[in-house]
Structure prediction request, 227 residues.
Amino acid sequence: GAVVSQHPSWVICKSGTSVKIECRSLDFQATTMFWYRQFPKQSLMLMATSNEGSKATYEQGVEKDKFLINHASLTLSTLTVTSAHPEDSSFYICSAHLAGVPDTQYFGPGTRLTVL
Amino acid sequence: SQQGEEDPQALSIQEGENATMNCSYKTSINNLQWYRQNSGRGLVHLILIRSNEREKHSGRLRVTLDTSKKSSSLLITASRAADTASYFCATDGQGAQKLVFGQGTRLTINP
Prediction:
């Protein structure tokens, strides 16, 4: 089956630093990837849609200058949390849409970000 | 908020019993999916039901969909301790392959 990986699986950083999270589709091409954020004991909230070769589309209320998304290839999207603050501490999950096949999204294992 | 609602928010039952979780959503959909999430882990896709389907089975899972009521239910029969997890429904009502997740049900199976 299709596999999506995320790196790192967890990261602890100091307030004010930037953190990059990678999302890779390992055995398929993904023209579209999605980034979600999940706070403890809450549901997943879509942050943005990452499109290969074009700018990401952000959901309402998500700061595009704070959460930089780069989808440079058909198998890699990155989310950079810039100038991280403690309130950015969360579980970040990506998913990848299998190109050409509707209704198929494969989720990564998530990245736990803790900002001190 | 576009998010759907799930009830109950938490459910605790004895091993062997059946567990039923409900999901309501707000917009028209093409399909509805159910996912499981173990604590601190990623999502595991369980089942997808299309808007023209009313019921679907997969192993011990049974999903129903009532588009007139904009609701779905997930039944897990003969529950096991390993079924302990959070369960989320997700709909594609916003288009462009976007998924909107429900609030989730935290299921605990007591041995």
